[in-house]
Amino acid sequence: MVTAYQEETLTLPPQHAGNPYLTGPFAPVLNQDIFTDLEVIGEIPRDLHGTYYRNGPNPKYVPKGRYHWFDGDGMLHALSFEDGKAVYRNRWIETEGLVAEDAERRSLFTGLIEPDPKNPLGYIKDNANTDVIYHKGNLLTLFYRAGKPYVVDPHTLKTIGATDFGGKWKGLVSAHAKVDEHTGELMIFDYGPKPPYMHYGVVSPEGELVNRTPIPLPGWRLPHDIAITRQYTVLMDMPVFVDPEAVKHGKQRIDFFPEIPTRFAVIPRHGGEADIRWFEAEPCYIYHVVNAWDNGDEVVMDVCRVSQPVAERGARMSDLDRMKKVLAEALQSARYHRYRFNLKTGATHEEQLWDITSEFPMVDLNRMGTPTRYSYHVTLPPLDTLRFDGLVKYDTQTGAQEEYKFGPGRWGSEAPFAARTDAVSEDDGYLLSFLHDENSGRSECLILDAVKLTEGPLARVMLPRRVPLGFHATWIPGLTLDNEVSS
Ligand SMILES: [Fe+2]
Questions:
Q1: How close is the Cα of 144 to the center of ligand 1, in Å?
Q2: Distance 435 CA to ligand 1 centre (A)
Q3: What are phi and psi for residue 456, nearest 5 degrees?
Q4: Residue ranges of domains in the chain, CATH in brackets
Q5: Which of 7, 179, 352, 415 has the smallest CB count inside 10 Å?
């Protein structure tokens, strides 16, 4: 049993001391550890076999210039389960930028608030801190702003290096690439400031790019996610982008343009530019897709729709205030929303399904692209910083929802679903969430029964030190990890 542990964090100079994303539950940890003998409150289900991975920002060196939460170096935290026992490990993703900084033992890049073309690798550091997915025996860590996809060994968390999918993908890859677990294909996209502003690609189960298609947009857009069905991929053109008027005055201000519709490009998985069907919808922003599937002539897509993507349009705020508002306040308007794109008529139908603030949706990844009834989201309290105070499970068949709140001062993580080996229903499995308790200063991992969410955790795996709050997570079954070889 690990009883005493010296946690190391950054010593912050005065200019960073008030930054909420460098302090408290967001403060980075400097230790890279493996813990094997962990205290457990309750009992880890013996049939829980696999690994829960979570990515998030964790700056290794005192930031140069003003720090935005999205600037931190990516760090993976993993908790592996087998035979009722858990093993924790964490490790930085060794991006090109971090390797360059390691050589000098200091931060070399300014961040998102002060992007600078004189930074060593371009305007901002590509830090792979946003998303973590699994494909072809490896983890892929992905950056929200589109970056190099870094391949990581799922067993050791050691970074293997960036991939270009057989030398064929000439571009970057955004967070939220999607794997079709039935075919083994990986659907990827990038976006950026140059025409055509977006590309879409398909990577074979063997890791080779087999399709690359331009998705022409009216200008530089800032999409975040895509949806896949068994037949189609849906890409997004949303009216949230850098204000061209502000650019004329030398400013890069992201704004929402509610007079411009949101558009969705529905493209056959292996289709080309000529096959794109565009569907218009009410203006909004979408961070995350719940799931999508084919339904006769329709593509159904469930999302968390943000109706007020920018807290105060054109507002003059300090950078820090603006950053906090964009992150925390905008997501307050996220609602469970369903689109139906009719491929026969070209019509879009959309409706809000619940009036609850929730985000970071998860479904059983084995069912991604096929009809799902349940999804599991985090709930977002109205605070200055982005924190998750509970989980909500939605049942789209009955319209019911169930919630579990973590308790005062307890903040969780995105909670992936781990199906039981002999599952008898779609929700027969577990939800996992790293959690930090500000009252005790301790971190833990909750294991919940997805069928009985309201009953609270089956087990709490107590960790010897903090896991900072972070971004996206995934669950990889043990049989998958055991049978596929990392390359
Ligand atoms: Fe995301």
A1: 7
A2: 19
A3: 85, -175
A4: 14-483 (2.120.10.30)
A5: 352
Q: Which residue has the tokens 């027969």?
A: 428
Give the Cα separation of 233 and 413 in Å (integer): 27
In the reported structure, the alpha carbon of residue 471 is separated from the centroid of ligand 1 by a whole-number distance in angstroms of 7
Q: Enter the tokens of residue 147.
A: 């970056």
Give the pLDDT confidence of 36-56 residue by residue, as tens digits: 999 999 999 999 999 999 999
- Would you say how long the chain is, in residues? 487
Distance 422 CA to ligand 1 centre (A): 30
C-alpha distances in angstroms, 258 versus 262, 282, 283, 338?
9, 9, 6, 20
Whole-Å CA distances, 473 to 20, 141, 231: 22, 10, 25
Integer Cα distance of 307 and 288 in angstroms: 13
Rounded distance from Cα 104 to ligand 1 centre (Å): 31
Count the neighbouring beta carbons within 10 Å of the beta carbon of residue 9.
Answer: 16
Q: Residue 205 corresponds to which tokens in the numbers above?
A: 């189960």
> Could you tell me which residue, 312 or 411, shows the higher pLDDT?
411
Handedness of CA 172, 95, 87, 43 (dihedral sign): negative
In angstroms, the CA 465 to CA 77 distance is: 12
pLDDT in tens, 444-483: 999 999 999 999 999 999 999 999 999 999 999 999 998 8
Per-residue pLDDT reduced to its tens digit, 216-248: 999 999 999 999 999 999 999 999 998 888 778
Question: For the chain, how big is the Rg over CA atoms in Å?
Answer: 21
Q: What single letter denotes the amino acid at residue 423?
A: A
Quote the strand ranges of 296-425, DSSP E. 298-306, 334-342, 348-352, 358-362, 374-379, 390-395, 401-405, 410-412, 417-419
Average pLDDT over residues 82-98: 97
**Maximal CA-CA distance, the chain:** 65
The tokens 């070399």 sit on which residue?
Answer: 108
- Residue 486 is predicted with a pLDDT of 66
Query: How far, in Å, is the centroid of ligand 1 from the Cα of 200?
Result: 18
Are 25 and 468 a contacting pair, CB within 8 Å?
Answer: yes
Residue range 364-378: mean pLDDT, rounded: 98
Over residues 336-351, mean pLDDT? 98
Q: Which residue has the tokens 């991939």?
A: 163
For residue 261, the tally of other CB atoms under 10 A from its CB is 17
**DSSP reduced 3-state for 332:** helix
Separation in Å, CA 338 to CA 279, 302, 348 = 14, 4, 10
